[in-house]
User: Fold this.
Amino acid sequence: MKWLMERDQLIAQTMAFVESVTGKKPAADTQPESPSSPVVEFERLESPVEVAEAPRQLPVARSAIREEIEGRVAAFRAHQQRFDRERDKHFNSVLTGIRSAITDRSGAPTP
Assistant:
C-alpha cells in the first residue's frame, strides 16, 4: 500500500504545480481520499488536463495564419514547377545530343 501513498503525493504535487502555473486553485483544495474504484481515479485525473487547456485564438489571427500558409504553398508550387521545367529542358537537350550521336556515324570511331 506504499504505492498508494506515493501516488497520492504525486497527484498532490501535480495539482500544486498546475495551480502555480495557471494561477487558479483546483476544484478541491483538500486531498481526496484514495478512490475505491479505478473509474473515480480516472475522473479525478482529468481535471489538470481541463485546467491546462490552451485558450482559443481569434478567427482574425487564424485567417492571417491561413493566408500566410497559402502564400507559402503557392510559392513552393511555383518553385517546383520551375524545377520541373528546367529538368525537362535538360532531359530534352541530353536526349537530343544522344539521338544526334547515334544517327551521326561519321564522328564515331570504327571498330
Remarks:
- Residues 19 and 36 are 26 Å apart (CA to CA).
- Confidence is low (pLDDT under 50) at residues 37-43.
